[in-house]
Write a structure and sequence with these properties.
The protein is of the alpha/beta class. Helices cover about 35% and strands about 25% of the residues. The mean pLDDT is about 90. Bound molecules: adenosine-5'-triphosphate (ATP). The site of adenosine-5'-triphosphate (ATP) has 11 residues, from β2 and α1. Keywords: Antibiotic resistance, ATP-binding, Nucleotide-binding, Transport.
């Protein structure tokens, strides 16, 4: 199947979200195809987390809509939740339980009764076969991160949402995580992630949206964005040598530090 024929998994249409007087997301639209790794990029305060919280159904937008696998989130919130994989923070897990118990608990929450053999296979997939009798709190940071990724995908979601998945990981754990993400894409999974590393986005994302002040600044494959904006004087002013996605990002969103 070539890229043009891939079905759309997630569509964000004219999304507007306000906090009181402040407009955090201001008419944002983008779409993600099946099997695509998509990066939602933007400086601090650009509106990424707010957009994710609407996609997850945690916040109602002031206007606009989100459609996942053809289903509008506001119309069928439960059906949509089953299509989404969301990586939980370590603090969300019951840290006294063994990881096998936690995995079974989450499978149950999605209405799956996975036999012990399958749960063990899933844990082995993320290299945790030696740890199945350990309580969550005894895992290392990298192991906890792998476990939470496994739990997020236990119900084979249509799209996996990852908010800064590599923040705080050492280079080895980060590489491993990308290998797993690539593996998931090869099996047809779609991923929406946020990252502040433009190098990472350029290396792993099929397409990215650069947003600022809640508005779309650029959308497309990293190499196409570089080609499209390399002669922009704002990009030229910040580039050193070959233009990178980071140069495009800083050129389009400005050099001022955000809080
Ligand atoms: N609960 C809230 N109440 C009021 N304002 C908020 C709230 N959450 C976010 N904001 C504001 O909305 C804007 C967008 O914030 P958001 O957290 O979505 O940005 P972000 O791109 O995820 O930033 P970061 O990279 O720092 O996580 C910011 O100006 C922020 O201060």
């Amino acid at each position: 199947m070539n890229e043009a024929e891939r079905p759309t998994v997630l569509e964000v249409q004219d999304l507007v979200v306000r906090y009181g007087q402040q407009t955090a997301v201001d008419g944002l639209s983008f779409s993600i195809s099946r099997g695509e790794i998509f990066g939602l990029l933007g400086p601090n305060g650009a509106g990424k987390t707010t957009t994710l919280s609407v996609i997850e159904g945690l916040r109602k937008p002031d206007s606009g809509r989100v459609v996942i696998d053809g289903v509008e989130t506001l119309h069928a919130p439960l059906a949509v939740k089953a299509k989404l994989g969301v990586q939980l923070q370590a603090s969300s897990f019951q840290s006294e339980l063994t990881i096998e118990q936690i995995a079974r608990l989450y499978a149950g929450l999605y209405g799956l009764s996975l036999p012990q053999r399958q749960i063990r296979e899933r844990l082995a997939d993320v290299g945790l076969q030696q740890e199945i009798t350990k309580p969550f709190k005894k895992l290392s940071g990298g192991q906890q991160q792998r476990f939470s990724l496994m739990v997020a995908t236990i119900h084979n979601p249509s799209i996996l949402l990852l908010d800064e998945p590599t923040a705080g990981l050492d280079p080895q754990s980060r590489r491993q995580l990308w290998d797993r993400i690539e593996g998931s894409r090869k099996r047809g999974g779609s991923i929406l992630l946020t990252t502040h590393s433009m190098e990472e986005a350029q290396a792993v994302c099929d397409s990215v949206a650069i947003i600022d002040h809640g508005r779309l600044q650029a959308f497309g494959a990293p190499k196409d964005l570089v080609a499209m904006h390399r002669d922009d004087p704002r990009v030229q002013a910040v580039a050193h040598g070959d233009v990178t996605l980071e140069d495009v990002f800083i050129g389009l969103t400005g050099s001022a530090i955000r809080d």
